[in-house]
Amino acid sequence: MDLRNIAIIAHVDHGKTTLVNELLKQSGVFRENQAVAERAMDSNDLERERGITILAKATSVEWKGTRINIVDTPGHADFGGEVERILSMVDGVVLLVDAAEGPMPQTKFVTSKALALGLRPIVVLNKVDKPDAEADRALDEVFDLFASLGADDDQLDFPHLYASGRSGWCDPELDGPRENLDALFNLVVNHVPKPRQIAHENDDFRMLVTTLGADPFIGRLLTGRVESGKLRTGATVQAISRIGQKIEQFRVSKILAFRGLGQSEIEEAVAGDIVSLAGMQKATVADTICALAVNEPIDAQPIDPPTITVTFGINDSPLAGRDGKKVQSRLIRERLMKEAEMNVAIKVADTPGGEAFEVSGRGELQMGVLIENMRREGFELSISRPQVILREENGVRLEPIEEVTIDVDDDYSGVVIEKLTSTRRGELVEMKPAGAGKTRIIAHVPSRGLIGYHGEFLTDTRGTGVLNRVFHGWAPHKGAIPGRRAGVLISMEDGEAVAYALWNLEERGKMFVEPQEKVYQGMIIGEHSRENDLEVNPLKGKKLTNVRASGTDEAVRLTTVSRMSLEQAIAYINDDELVEVTPKAIRLRKRHLDPHERKRAAKAG
Questions:
Q1: For the chain, how many helices (H) and strands (E)?
Q2: 509 pairs with which residues across the strands?
Q3: Pairing of strands 169-171, 347-350
Q4: Domain 2-194 sits in which CATH superfamily?
C-alpha cells in the first residue's frame, strides 16, 4: 500500500484537532452510528479540560488505496520539544491558519522548524465561514511569513485550500461546493512525496525513536518511523545512543502500527511506516534502534534549550500528608526522572541538600501541566517561583527574549504598551490596526518580565485581550525588573479561619481563604493593600458578653475570595515564598529560612 506521512501544525485554537476528527470520520475510521468524542485525538484529561494539544499523537487513515499517517502536534511553544522530535517522522506538513487571525506566533515557531527540514507545506485557511474571516489577507500573511523564515522557491509555491473543520468541508475555491474533505485528501496524496526510505527497503533495519510511551500490559513502547529495511516480530536488534554508544540488545516482542485511533499488532514493519516497538529495557528518545550489523546512529534533530527553571521540593508544611500519598523526596525524584526521559525538553538536576530538585523547561505552562499531572497522581509538592536561565558568552551575560503578540481593544493599547516597555524592559517592534476596533502589538520582552504578567494583562484589558508569546532569541541582560508590588497577609496562628476575623481583615486587603479553612503559621492568607508584608490573626473571634440588644450585633458579610489557578499561583509568589500543591488544595506560604538566611535576605532586601 502507498504511504504518506504528514504532520498537522497550527496555533492554539485554530481548529487542528477538530479537523483531524473530521478526517477520521470521512475516511471511514468510525462506524456510522459510533459515538465519538468532540476532539477524539485529545485523549489526555488535561487536554480536554484546557482545549489544547499537549502531547504529539499519531493516527492513520486509508484513502483510495493510500495509507496516510497523520501526526497531531501541540500548538503551544512550551511543548515545542514534542514538535521538534516528530517532524523528523513526516514528509510533508499541513499548516492550518485561522482565516480571521492569520498566522500567529506559535504558527511561526513550528513552521520555522518544518521549513528548516525542507518539508513542503500545504496551507489550509480554516474557519472561512466566520463573519470576521479575511481569507485573502491571511493568505498574504502566510506568504510573507514563509518568506521571512527563508523558505525556498518550492516551499513558497505552496498549494492552499479553504476549509471549515467543524463543518467538515475543504475546497480549492472560497465559493466551492462545501460538501466534504475530498480536496484535502487528494492534495495530500498528490503533493506530499512518498517516504524517501522506500528506496532503501532492502538495507539493514534502522529507526530513530521520537516518542516514549508505556502500556500496563506490554511495558515500554518506543515510537518512530522506520528509516530503512524491514523488521519482523521476534527479531533481535540493538539500541545505539545519539553519540554512537551501544546501549542494549533486545528481542522485539511486539510491533504496533497506528490504525485509526488505536494501535494494531502487525507482524512486519516496512520502511516509511510509523510504528511502536516493545521489548526494550533501557533505550529511550533520540536513540537509534537498528540491526546488529549497523554501527552508526541516525542524526537526531537538536532540541532547543530550556529557558526557565523551577524548584520542586517536598511539602514540609504542618498540613503535609493529609491529602496526598506520595510525599517522599525519593518518589518525587523518580517521577521527575521518568518525565525527563519521556520529554526531552525537560531537564532535572538535584540540589545540594538532596531534598529538592531543579526542573528546567520551556515555560510556565509546561511546568504547570507537569505539576497538575503530579498532583492528580497523589503527589504533594512545594514549588518555587520560576527563575529564568541566564548564560554567558564572551564575558556578556545573556537572557532569553520572547516575541509577544497582543490583540487588544484600542482603548487599552496605551496601558499595555506602557507596562511592556517601561516596567518590563520590552521593546516595541510593531503596532498596527487589526480591524474591529482592535490593535495588534508585537514586542520583544525579556522572559523575566513576562513571569506573572498574564493575569495583570487580563485585568488591564478587562479580559478582552489575547496574548501569545514565543521564544525569540538571546540578548544582553536588560537590568532589574520590579516584581510584585503588593505585600501579603501572613497567618500568625494555626487552626481554622474565623469569619469574624476575616471580615475585620478585609480592609487590609483581599483574602485568599474562606471561613473554616485550615491555616497555619507562615501561610499566606491574602494580599496586603500596601507594599509591606503583615502578620495577622485569622483565628480571632468576637468577644461575647451575656448582654444582647437588637442593633448591636454586626452582620458579617464577606467578599468572595480570590482563588488562583496553579499557573497564577506560581507566577504570583516572590522569591521568598512557595506554592504548596496537594491533590485537593493550592496554598501559598512563606519559605522557611534559617537565621543565617534571614540575615542575608534582610541585607539583600
A1: 15, 35
A2: 528
A3: unpaired
A4: P-loop containing nucleotide triphosphate hydrolases (3.40.50.300)
CA distance 257 to 275: 5
What helix, strand, coil percent values describe the chain, rounded to 5? 25, 35, 40
- CB 364, CB 451: distance < 8 Å: yes
Cα separation, 452 vs 558, in Å, equals 27
For 33-44, what is the mean pLDDT? Answer: 49
To the nearest 10°, the Cα dihedral for 93, 98, 99, 104? -90
Q: Which long-range contacts (CB under 8 A, 24 or more apart) does 539-548 make?
A: 539/493, 539/495, 539/496, 539/497, 539/498, 539/501, 540/498, 540/500, 540/501, 540/504, 541/498, 541/500, 541/501, 542/500
- Residue 569 CA to residue 385 CA, distance in Å, equals 9
Cα-trace Rg, the chain: 27
Burial class (CB in 10 A: 0-12, 13-18, 19+), 218: middle
Residue 321 has pLDDT above 80, yes or no: yes
Query: Tell me: the pLDDT tens digits for 565-602?
Result: 888 888 888 888 899 999 999 999 988 654 444 444 44
Beta bridge partners of 357: 312, 350
* Number of residues that make up the chain: 605
- Which secondary structure element, helix H or strand E, spans residue 368, and what is its range? helix 364-376
> Distance between CA 421 and CA 406 in Å, rounded?
14
Distance CA 407, CA 420 (A): 14
Sign of the torsion formed by the C-alpha atoms of 15, 17, 21 and 24: positive
CATH number of 198-290, picked from 2.40.30.10, 3.40.50.300, 1.10.357.140, 3.40.50.1240: 2.40.30.10
Tens of pLDDT along 158-178? 999 999 888 889 999 988 888
